[in-house]
Amino acid sequence: MFPELNNLLNTSPDRVEQGKVTLLCDAKTDGSFLVHHFLSFYLKANCKVCFVALVQSFSHYNIVGQKLGVSLTAARERGQLVFLEGLKSSVDIFFRAEEEPHPLHFLREARAGNLQPLYEFVQEALKPVDRGEAAWTCPVLLVDDLSVLLSLGVGAVAVLDLIHYCRATVCWKLQGNIVALVHDSGDAEDEENDILLNGLSHQSHLILRAEGLATGFCRDVHGQLRILWRRPSPLAAQQARSLTYQYKIQDKSVSFFAKGMSPAGL
Question: What is the pTM of this model?
Answer without folding.
Answer: 0.90
